[in-house]
Design goal:
Number of domains: 1
Largest sheet: 8 strands, parallel
Distance between the termini: 15 Å
Radius of gyration: 17 Å
Number of helices: 10
Structural class: alpha/beta
CATH class: Alpha Beta
Oligomer: single chain
Order of helices and strands: EHEHEHHEHEHEHEHEHH
């Protein structure tokens, strides 16, 4: 099988000690493509370096994480994420310029989008939407797909994508209700299913609703592990394929082949 992880963070500290082993396990599990996403200036450059070191399997996606994008506007009490990390305060326009200058080195732009769970302030949320619209314009200009973070802001993400007539996007870890999932399907968007589908019924429901032709696989490693409290890694894609195959009533090979075809369609890989 030809497996793919379309969204993970292998530059994060959780992989500092054993990344070679992580890559080897992924290859042994049948993973032939890993799209590693940045979240800001520092991680974008780390993702680029990682893709050069492991060029046989890793492709980079350069991102502007929605919480970091407005970090300078947030009070100290809100200047945080739900994972232990320091927010990066930067000028998103400078980073969009860098992404444009390095467009030939990336396969996508992401992760980007909206995060209303961590950003409560309405002015900051409005700024997130403004930035997201600018990012979509850059993606159109560069001909790049987007990997989209939409936590608690899924409806606004779909509104903006529809208003911009932008369909070249993966809704990463989409946790919205059935109505919004169906709307995303109607808009022709892709949905990447994380390995946490092994223990979260929501993603099984999403797989039931979304046609196989619009499904992708991801891990969001090191997060969303198939085992509670564990570290996720690209090798876990094999578990996701098994569950999708059961839900869709198809063989694992058929599911993997269609997911690979979807990946080729969205990201332009060969």
């Amino acid at each position: 099988m030809n497996l793919v992880d379309v969204h993970c963070h292998l530059t994060f500290p959780q992989f500092r000690e054993d990344l070679d082993s992580v890559i080897r396990r992924a290859k042994d599990a049948g993973v032939n493509l890993i799209i590693c996403s940045g979240v800001g200036p520092k991680s974008n450059r780390e993702v680029l370096a990682l893709s050069k070191k492991y060029s046989h399997i890793i492709k980079p996606s350069f991102g502007i994480y929605p919480v970091d994008a407005v970090a300078s506007m947030l009070p100290e009490s809100e200047k945080k994420d739900d994972v232990p990390r320091d927010l990066e305060v930067f000028d998103y326009r400078d980073e969009l310029t860098w992404i444009t200058q390095n467009k030939d080195d990336c396969i996508a732009i992401g992760e980007v989008g909206l995060d209303y769970m961590m950003v409560k302030d309405e002015v900051a949320r409005a700024k997130q939407r403004e930035i997201f619209e600018e990012i979509i314009d850059v993606a159109k200009e560069l001909g790049k797909p987007l990997v989209i973070h939409s936590r608690k802001g899924e409806g606004d993400v779909l509104d903006i994508l529809e208003s911009k007539n932008f369909k070249k996007a993966d809704l990463h870890c989409f946790t919205a209700n059935k109505k919004l999932i169906k709307r995303g399907v109607q808009l022709g968007l892709f949905f990447s299913v994380p390995a946490v589908i092994t223990r979260l019924e929501h993603f099984k429901m999403l797989v039931e609703l979304v046609p196989l032709t619009q499904l992708l696989t991801e891990t969001d490693a090191p997060y969303l592990s198939p085992e509670a409290g564990g570290r996720s890694e690209p090798a876990h894609i094999a578990s996701t394929i098994k569950i999708i195959s059961k839900i869709k009533g198809l063989s694992e090979n058929e599911v993997a082949a269609q997911v690979w075809k979807n990946t080729q369609e969205l990201f332009g890989v060969k």
